[in-house]
Specification:
The chain is built from five helices and three strands. With about 100 residues, the chain is α+β, with helices and mostly antiparallel strands. The protein has a three-stranded antiparallel sheet with strand order 1-3-2. A hairpin with a 6-residue loop joins strand 2 and strand 3.
Length: about 100
Amino acid sequence: MTGIKNMPRPRREKDRLLMFTEACEILLQLHDIGGEAFLQDLIQQARIGRMSIYKYYKKLEEKGLIESEEISPFAKKKIMLTEKGRKIAELLKKIEEIFFT
């Protein structure tokens, strides 16, 4: 039974893959629209769901890949790629181009 402990948990791995994929999508989307956008505009243009963007943009911010700024008291929030985020987005873009061309 000791071998069971070392087996990966399929559900957890799927969750990690989904999180990674959606976080990459946010970085790519921001890169494609010039590196910054209002959160609401990103939600409208993104190819992932609104809840995923809310969930992962905070994680990306914690990791130093994006930063956010409140523009108005009406919760208008601008998010921007950091230099680190821009470099990663450019690398993801190159990988995407190689893979899909």
